[in-house]
């Protein structure tokens, strides 16, 4: 059982504030992902939970007990690093067993725990190999195995897949998700990749500049972004944002939008290409990208930044052709002049 609570948590390096009053509850057994751009504070926040960074202010609790000054080894957490942090002179088996030996766990218990972890992570044929003889994905599984044998209540992952190629990342995402289902432990995962966040998380915590921008399920953040930052960070390609002034003031009338809206957002897949010239605005096609099941159309719009549309793969549109676009008002996101969502 591990319920984590962060109350007005702050971290400063001298006069530089890095974490700026974070309030967050992570329920027992939840898979929580910290996501955000580089430098937003997500890894620092994870290291504060692990006990590797001092807490400047606020309170961190596990199951109601204050953890601010508790040593990392006594917090019931295990951290899996991006760099794997394996000992090069130790075999796979020895790397996984190392922490247990340091704690003077009995030989029989070590054998049982390591054996269970090796089986769970499908490392049976690799136990005598050394890290230099392993692929990136295999090394990451060994690092996860080392965390598992400690039987922590909470697993912490700091961008564990960043060093892997695209195919391995997909495979390891699946393995980590299956591991969570099997162990039923609280897991906190840091990534800058919003696709990883969307596919793994029960709860996403979107961070920017040391503050939480939005907390919710993947569906919440994608379908109901609470501000312009969340709207454009979650989703690939990112949401197209229009300022409802000047050339685009007519969008309010055409789509019957709330008069308090200053911005509207339309995701690439929410555009409809009109069969006549009666769209809400026109765009000139500059590039068509083939993605297999769909295609991305990059287009220039007069008085606006270029936009991206996602359309069926058989959409017959030539470069430099003029297209007219519509959008269902139900799929248009509205934001006030301060960037916050209009409900």
TrEMBL record:
One of the Pfam families matching this protein, by short name: TOBE_2
Presence of the UniProt keyword Transport in the record: yes
All residue ranges annotated as the ABC transporter domain in the record: 4-234
Molecular function terms, GO-annotated: ABC-type maltose transporter activity; ATP binding; ATP hydrolysis activity
GO cellular component, one term: maltose transport complex
Matching SMART domains: AAA
Leader sequence residues: none
CDD domains listed in its UniProt record: ABC_MalK_N (cd03301)
InterPro entries assigned to the protein according to its UniProt record, in alphabetical order: AAA+_ATPase (IPR003593), ABC_transporter-like_ATP-bd (IPR003439), ABC_transporter-like_CS (IPR017871), ABC_transpr_MalK-like (IPR015855), ABC_transpr_MalK/UgpC-like (IPR047641), Mo/tungstate-bd_C_term_dom (IPR008995), NA-bd_OB-fold (IPR012340), P-loop_NTPase (IPR027417)
Keywords tagged on the record: ATP-binding, Nucleotide-binding, Transport
The family this protein is said to belong to: Belongs to the ABC transporter superfamily.
NCBIfam families: PRK11650.1
The protein's name: ABC transporter ATP-binding protein
Species, as recorded: Thalassospira mesophila
Lineage of origin: Bacteria, Pseudomonadati, Pseudomonadota, Alphaproteobacteria, Rhodospirillales
């Amino acid at each position: 059982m591990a319920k984590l609570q962060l109350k007005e948590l702050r971290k400063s390096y001298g006069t530089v504030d890095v974490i700026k009053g974070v309030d967050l509850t992570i329920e027992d057994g939840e898979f929580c992902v910290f996501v955000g751009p580089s430098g937003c504070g997500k890894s620092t926040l994870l290291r504060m939970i692990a006990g590797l960074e001092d807490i400047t202010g606020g309170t961190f609790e596990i199951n109601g007990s204050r953890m601010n000054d508790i040593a990392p080894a006594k917090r019931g957490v295990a951290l899996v690093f991006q760099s794997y942090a394996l000992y090069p002179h130790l075999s796979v088996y020895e790397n996984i067993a190392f922490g247990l030996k340091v704690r003077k766990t009995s030989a029989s218990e070590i054998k049982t725990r390591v054996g269970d972890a090796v089986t769970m992570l499908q490392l049976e044929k690799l136990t005598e190999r050394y890290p230099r003889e392993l692929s990136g994905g295999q090394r990451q599984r060994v690092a996860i195995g080392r965390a598992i044998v400690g039987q922590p209540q909470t697993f912490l992952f700091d961008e564990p897949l960043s060093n892997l190629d695209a195919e391995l990342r997909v495979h390891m995402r699946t393995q980590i998700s299956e591991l969570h289902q099997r162990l039923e432990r609280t897991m906190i995962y840091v990534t800058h990749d919003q696709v990883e966040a969307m596919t793994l998380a029960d709860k996403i915590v979107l961070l920017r500049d040391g503050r939480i921008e939005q907390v919710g399920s993947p569906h919440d953040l994608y379908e109901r972004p609470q501000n312009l930052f969340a709207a454009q960070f979650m989703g690939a390609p990112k949401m197209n944002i229009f300022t409802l002034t000047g050339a685009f003031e007519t969008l309010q009338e055409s789509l019957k939008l709330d008069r308090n809206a200053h911005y509207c957002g339309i995701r690439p897949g929410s555009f409809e290409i009109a069969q006549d010239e009666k769209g809400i605005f026109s765009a000139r096609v500059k590039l068509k990208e083939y993605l297999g099941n769909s295609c991305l159309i990059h287009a220039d719009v007069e008085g606006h930044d270029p936009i991206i549309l996602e359309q069926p793969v058989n959409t017959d549109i030539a470069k430099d052709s003029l297209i007219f676009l519509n959008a269902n008002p139900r799929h248009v996101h509205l934001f006030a002049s301060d960037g916050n969502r209009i409900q």
